[in-house]
TrEMBL record:
Residues 17-156 form the Protein kinase domain. GO terms for molecular function: ATP binding; protein serine/threonine kinase activity. InterPro entries: Kinase-like_dom_sf (IPR011009), NEK_Ser/Thr_kinase_NIMA (IPR051131), Prot_kinase_dom (IPR000719), Ser/Thr_kinase_AS (IPR008271). The lineage of its organism: Eukaryota, Metamonada, Preaxostyla, Oxymonadida, Streblomastigidae. Its EC number is 2.7.11.1. It is an enzyme of class 2 (transferase). This is non-specific serine/threonine protein kinase.
Length: 156
């Protein structure tokens, strides 16, 4: 673990981040692009409201699952409570989701497109296999929830 990650996890606090923009909002909470003040690195913050004891238990269970590490899963950074919300910080995958990438693939020659599709499928299946090996079932696997990291690798 890098010194930067040690620092992030040693002092988790909402005040360490600046909200850049809201990415999405739903009944489950808000997804926000944030910037860590010390390094200026971008992350995603999921703000989940603690509406009930049951809701808090579900959110805490989600954090436990997110802590599972795999090169095919979006990396968990830290979590903390702010006001009445649980804030979960994860890596930011700046190249978006594969729904967008699938559209771009339509412009690629057939042979190259097939190679890229096989690589994507391999990475998705590897990520799902990693989850299943830990008894974890992804309940919302769809193109909008599969991302491309800065190196073009798949992250679930």
């Amino acid at each position: 673990m890098s010194h930067q990650e040690d620092d992030l996890q040693a002092h988790p606090s909402y005040n360490n981040y600046e909200e850049v923009k809201e990415l999405s909002k739903g009944a489950w909470g808000r997804l926000i692009l944030v910037q860590y003040q010390k390094t200026k690195k971008f992350f995603k913050m999921l703000r989940l409201p603690y509406l009930s004891v049951e809701n808090k238990k579900l959110a805490d269970d989600d954090v436990a699952i997110l802590k599972f590490k795999s090169k095919y899963l979006v990396a968990f950074v830290e979590a903390f409570q702010h006001q009445n919300d649980l804030c979960i910080i994860t890596e930011h995958c700046p190249y978006g989701n594969i729904r967008e990438f699938i559209e771009e693939l339509k412009l690629v020659p057939d042979k190259e497109r097939k190679i890229q599709i096989y690589e994507i499928l391999f990475q998705i299946l590897s990520g799902v296999s990693d989850l299943h090996s830990q008894g974890i079932l992804h309940e919302d696997l769809k193109p909008e929830n599969i991302f491309l990291d800065i190196n073009g690798n798949i992250k679930i």
